[in-house]
Amino acid sequence: MYSFDLEHQGGADYKYTFNCNNGNRYIVLFAVAQDLFDFENNAEYQFYFLNIIPQIERPVFDINTSKTIAAITNDFFQYKPDGFVFYYPENTDGRDRQRTKLFDRWFENHSTDIHLRFVYVINIEDTVLYAGLLVLANNPKKDSGKQIVTNFIKGLNIGKDAPLY
Fold first, then answer.
1. SS3 of 73, please?
2. Angle, helices 96-110/63-79, rounded to nearest 10 degrees
């Protein structure tokens, strides 16, 4: 795992940075996503993973990056135990399905069992999009939060056959 820094500057967002051995520098951002699903108490966050200093155009899989992202997520949930983290991968290059699988694998293999992961497939007009949701298993609102997101996704998928991710 790589060491990471939290650059929380008094706002509602949580920004983490870390450097990899290959020279890449990353930001992991949990940005408040108010009004996305209408949860109470600003508990909605959107997850962003950005390569801000790319040294390698297509870096090979690095197990320490996965471990670091899982540790950062654990740290974030220490601050926001009632939070819901929504992940919507960038899809301009058609690799959003692979990014969703990677996102899921980060938490499946390197996170504690306190996270519940839900993966969604959204089918809008001949376009398939992917999304994920993270929540702590002991969050008392986890079931209602999951239902809100599930109903939202079902509303987008009405009359469509969404493939399994």
1. helix
2. 70
Residue 78, CA distances (Å) to 39, 92, 110, 136, 163 in order: 19, 33, 17, 10, 34
Could you say which residues of the chain have pLDDT below 70? Answer: 9-10, 34-42, 54-60, 107, 109-120, 124, 152-165
Single pTM value for the model:
0.79
Give φ, ψ of 3 to 5 degrees.
-75, 150
- Strand 84-87 to 44-53 pairing: parallel
Close Cβ partners of 63 (under 8 Å, ≥ 6 residues apart): none
- pLDDT value at residue 163: 45
Supply 5's token pair: 């820094």
Q: Are 48 and 31 in contact (CB under 8 A)?
A: yes
In this prediction, residue 159 carries a pLDDT of: 52
123 CB-contact burial (10 Å; exposed 0-12 / middle 13-18 / buried 19+):
middle
Element (H, E) at 151: helix 142-156
- H-helix or E-strand spanning residue 47: strand 44-53
